[in-house]
Amino acid sequence: MNNIFEIMYTEEILKRIENLTENSQPKWGKMSVGQMLAHCSSFQDIAMGYSSPRRSLLGILVGRFAKSIFFNEKPLAHNMSTIPTILITDKRDFEIEREKLKKKIKTFQKNGADSCTVHPHPFFGKLTPEQWGKGIYKHLDHHLKQFGV
Questions:
Q1: Nearest partner of 33 among 94, 106, 101, 111, judged by Cα
Q2: 95: exposed, middle or buried (C-beta count within 10 Å: 0-12, 13-18, 19+)?
Q3: How many Cβ atoms from other residues are within 10 Å of residue 19's Cβ?
Q4: Rounded to an integer, what distance in angstroms lies between the CA atom of residue 124 and that of residue 63?
Q5: pLDDT tens digits, residue range 10-53?
Q6: Is 125 helix (H, G, I), strand (E, B) or coil?
Q7: Closest to 122 (Cα-Cα) out of 62, 44, 61, 56
Q8: Which residue in 113, 142, 146 sits closest to 3, CA to CA?
Q9: Do 140 and 105 meet the contact criterion of CB atoms below 8 Å apart?
């Protein structure tokens, strides 16, 4: 599984983000490209420990069992539910959100595995730094595919 802590995967993701345009349209889902970038940025905040959403009841009950479904080579399903605190519904400026996300990805990669939060993931619970790195890559890849890049 690809890991955002490996520079080649970080560079690949950043290049794909650069290929987005303000007019990029989703292949599925309701988010605009600016909202998607803000959503991904908010997920970065969780991994970096800048925000710590509470665990959901469903996550507490089945999250640790669902890790094996998520942390594999299969792509994420379209239209999956998301963490409520990072569901972006207001209008967002594409350029601002793109630059913000790129900066967070670069910082996360540069600071390495030791920069991962120790707070549990809101659904999966406790994650290792390796799982955070793989999860960040998989989440970004999912949303970039959503917008055709």
A1: 94
A2: exposed
A3: 11
A4: 4
A5: 999 999 999 999 999 999 999 999 999 999 999 999 999 999 99
A6: strand
A7: 56
A8: 113
A9: yes
Amino acid identity of residue 63, one-letter, is G
- Dihedral angle of Cα 96, 101, 102, 106, to the nearest 10 degrees: 140
pLDDT of residue 81: 83
Alpha helices in 5-146 (DSSP H): 7-18, 33-48, 57-70, 94-111, 129-146
Alpha-carbon separation of residue 21 from 1, 13, 37, 148 (angstroms): 28, 15, 11, 11
Residue 140 corresponds to which tokens in the numbers above? 């970004």
Half-sphere CA count of 106, side-chain side, radius 13 A: 9
Half-sphere exposure of 7 (CA within 13 A, CB side): 2
